Amino acid sequence: MRIKSLALRAKAVVEGFYNGLHRSPFHGFSVEFSEYRPYTVGDDLRALDWKLFARSDRYYIKKFEDETTRRCYLVVDQSRSMGFGTLEYSKLDYAQTLAATLAHYLTLQRDSVGLMTFDAKLGDFISARNRPGHLRSVLVALSRPVAGEGTDIDAPLRQIAALVPRRGLIVLVSDLLSPIESLRTNLAYLRSRGHEVMILRVLDPGEMELQLSEAGMIVDMETGEEIYLDPEEARAGYRQKFQQHRDQLKTICDSLGVDLFEMPTDQPLEQALFHILSVQKRRSAGPARAGMVAAGAASGARSS
Known about the structure:
Blueprint: H1 6-23, E1 36-38, H2 50-56, E2 60-62, H3 65-68, E3 71-77, H4 91-108, E4 112-118, E5 122-129, H5 134-142, H6 154-163, E6 169-174, H7 183-192, E7 196-203, H8 205-208, E8 216-219, E9 226-229, H9 231-256, E10 259-264, H10 270-285, H11 290-303
Parallel strand pairs: 3-4, 3-6, 6-7, 7-10
Antiparallel strand pairs: 1-2, 4-5, 8-9
């Protein structure tokens, strides 16, 4: 995080991830997308590779270029609340680095990467592509400072569903510190259109546990409202409401098959890449190996 260049910061994280990958239980798995996938009932038999069947005694379907290239859209919260931070950097610094890291990693995978930023209004939108210079455009848009105030989590989810007709991976990077009454509806709509959805919830340690030591006036970063707060009186109630909000998010995501990961800003950024790799491997391996792959990703993240 001390590296000023967002591009170099992302590159450093990805290189560290690859080094950790070779020390993890994922060693031996190709991080490149295969040109084959296992046959499932209902697949077109004309796509079966009989030569591969003769060598392996297993049925595989040939993947075509359109099928092997994943389209990923990063939906990044740049609202005023993301400017908060009790460390040497803010949640926005962490979220921008996180999104840049994912963009760099997916580009190396030859996947198409797009971006949407938002606060109270929609910000930049860059269509998913994989061509020279595209990653730079994504990084330039990510590097913009906080400009908005409030957070409207619903508008970007509705908009991304309208703008992206072909199914892909939608990664929402946000603190989700906003009302979530309509979140279920918008996530359900994305899932109904065939998109895989992953939420990386970026939180500062000072938000996860109220760390104010003295009573005084505090200012709402998004509305500017001043509030008197006695941390001794507020701590128990804050903890209860924060956990209630967290439980509601988990319930919504679990019911819709949305992957939700908390990303505290004092934790290594490589964990996000392990989360994505874990999800990819789990879905390609099927239910039988899901638990083993998820455990392997967690162990690999610790070793890195």
